[in-house]
Amino acid sequence: MAQGTYRPDDVAVMRSALDDWCAIHHISPTSREGVAVAVKILDLMCDRSLTRQQLLKQLEHAPLAERIP
Fold first, then answer.
1. How many independent structural domains does the chain possess?
2. Is 21 buried (19+), middle (13-18) or exposed (0-12) by CB count in 10 A?
3. Helix or strand or coil: residue 29?
4. Within a domain: residue 1?
5. DSSP H helical segments within the chain, as ranges?
6. What is the domain range of residue 13?
7. Is 56 inside a domain boundary?
8. From CA 29, how far away is CA 68, in angstroms rounded?
9. What are 8-67's pLDDT values in tens digits?
10. Cys bridge to 17: 12, 38, 49, 55, which one at CB 3.0-4.6 A?
C-alpha cells in the first residue's frame, strides 16, 4: 500500500471516487472489494494528483477480481 502525504483536496477526490465506484458496482466501501479499491486509489494518488474522473478511468482497467487481494 502506498504511503504518502495527501492534501485535503486529494482526500475529498479519493473519497468521491471511492463512493462513485462503489455505487456503480453496488458494493459497500467497507466490504472486502471496497477496501481493495480504496487501497488502489491510494496507490494511484501516491505519485500524482488525479481528478475523480481520472481515478474512475484508471479503476476501469482492472477486472474486479484483480482488485481484491
1. 1
2. buried
3. coil
4. no
5. 8-25, 32-46, 52-60, 64-67
6. 8-67
7. yes
8. 13
9. 899 999 999 999 999 999 999 999 999 999 999 999 998 789 999 999 999 987 656 455
10. 55
- Residue linked to cell 455505487: 23
C-beta pairs of 42-49 under 8 Å, 24+ apart in sequence: 42/1, 42/2, 42/4, 42/14, 43/1, 43/2, 45/2, 45/4, 45/6, 45/10, 45/13, 45/14, 46/2, 46/3, 46/4, 49/7, 49/9, 49/10, 49/13
Closest by CA position to 52, among listed 13, 24, 12: 13
pTM of the model: 0.82
- Specify if 3 maps to a domain: no
* Grid cell digits, residue 45: 494518488
Supply 4's cell numbers. 504518502
Burial of 61 (0-12, 13-18, 19+ CB in 10 A): exposed
